[in-house]
Amino acid sequence: MRRVTLTQYLIEQQRAARISPDLRLLIEVVARAVKAISVNVSKGALADVLGEAGTDNVQGEAQKKLDVIANEILLQANEWGGHLAAMASEEVEEVHQIPFDYPKGGYLLLFDPLDGSSNIDVNISVGTIFSVLSNPTQDEEPTESSFLQPGSEQVAAGYALYGPSTMLVLTVGHGVHGFTLDREMGSFVYTHPFMTVPVSTSEYAINGSNMRHWEAPVQRYISELQAGSSGPRGRDFNTRWVASMVADVHRILTRGGIFMYPLDAKCADKGGKLRLMYEANPMAMIVEQAGGAATTGRERILDVIPTRLHQRIPVILGSAEEVERVTAYHVDGR
Ligand code: AHM
Ligand code: MG
Fold first, then answer.
1. Residue 299 C-alpha to ligand 1 middle, in angstroms?
2. Domains plus CATH for the chain?
3. Span from the CA of 49 to the centroid of ligand 1 (angstroms)
4. In this predicted model, what pLDDT tens digit does every residue of 175-200 receive, in sequence order?
5. Is 243 a pocket residue for ligand 1 (Cβ < 6 Å)?
6. What is the pTM of this model?
């Protein structure tokens, strides 16, 4: 069987005028960085990459060694290619400017270098999430406000899943496409064309230990699912919660489901748990491109006008029927 690689897929997208040469280069460079992160993740204890780094990030969270390694790999890989105006990382407080000795391009790259990092030390899947915007002020040095564009402005988004196999899942606004890393060849092979989220589902993902902290609409929705065939939904639902957003979203892209990290009393003062720019927006673009839906419970995630780079937000995404139902409960206020 003839194998199509990520490189070939991207060249074909460029020929079809769906991406610019610089965006193609950008995605190739991110994919190269993902391969390097994958090598580090898979070595685990053999390479002394597990455990705490002994530092806190901008969010005040303790960084793992692999958070720091993945962040460095992405920053260094993307600095010199000439395709970027600047970068922003979940792990870095300020905008990361391109060093003066390198040429600058027209794109802004945002990433969560290692998502789900509480899972690293227990050898469970983690991921990388990224988002690409155009630099609105083409000739000036980007500032935080250059990045504060709604998710609907993203020109590309994707994630890497470091699971039993390493996958890169990507959208440039023409469907969602998955590539599996062939470790022997060192290349990503196009294995999952046009991934879709089924409209209906009987599977949900939420951290149930927060139940007592949720708002009324989420309490109502989850109680109805848990009542199963004897409740108002008239059928049984199943729970899955990896606590790695990438793994939970990947499952939903594969067989459907709803993922929720709603507002709760514990994170209300921060606006939510997950980050708008590094997690919610790229995942919302991917899920919508795959035929699903993504809201905060009150509005479409991709319409939210960001006010801060490290802003947090409630996230409800996945199979459209279920997302619409939870959103309707929020609009109802109960
Ligand atoms: P991180 O970026 O610091 O790893 O945090 C984000 C992660 C998501 O991947 C996951 O859905 C969530 O946090 C899990 O949270 P919890 O530990 O509350 O279940
Ligand atoms: Mg994260």
1. 22
2. 6-192 (3.30.540.10), 203-332 (3.40.190.80)
3. 20
4. 999 999 999 999 999 999 999 999 98
5. yes
6. 0.96
